[in-house]
Fold this protein.
Amino acid sequence: MLRVVVMVSGGGTNLQAVLDAVRDGKITNAEVVGVISNKPNAYALTRAENAGIPAVCVSPKSYSEREQFNEALLAAVDSFSPDLVVLAGFLVILPELLIRSYKNRMINIHPSLIPSFCGKGFYGLKVHEEVLARGCRVTGATVHFVDEGCDSGPILLQKAVEVRQGDTPEVLQRRVMEEAEWQLLPRAIDLIANGKVAVKDGFAQIL
Ligand code: GRF
């Protein structure tokens, strides 16, 4: 069984998609063993509790030094002994040690087709606002492994989503979630849990 820890900051709809997929047997050979949030009132924590999964909050506000927070965050992740760490809307700059410790064992979901509309500052509605401002006809979502850069690690899965006339950033965000994110993230975990993914020379391969 692949031990999965999910890290969140907000509503946790991607977390929910993963929990539902495990329950429905769409993800096999994996269990979500813990959820970590940096925000004490993230609704994702409630979703975890409702599913009977241990959930902890590690808030930067509880520490006077960033280094102390970084250590606490790594300790929280390690405490679950995960095989895979899933960033599902985790809006924190990751400590380098965490990235190094979980190299090729940490994935992130990003709400655009990387390398478009990604990198520093591209999170939340901003991504979809910029897609609309550029007049794109398609956007989508990407699941990638996490490396030291921002949204720069090996790409595992991508799915395109149509941009429609009259879309608002909110409408587009919702469509990207429904048609891409909530499908890609469970699929990525299922592939990894079933030994169907290898990372070699900076590229993810589906075996
Ligand atoms: C999603 O759009 C995800 O792609 C991004 O943050 C958002 C999280 O939403 N990284 P939710 O908390 O899963 O609802």
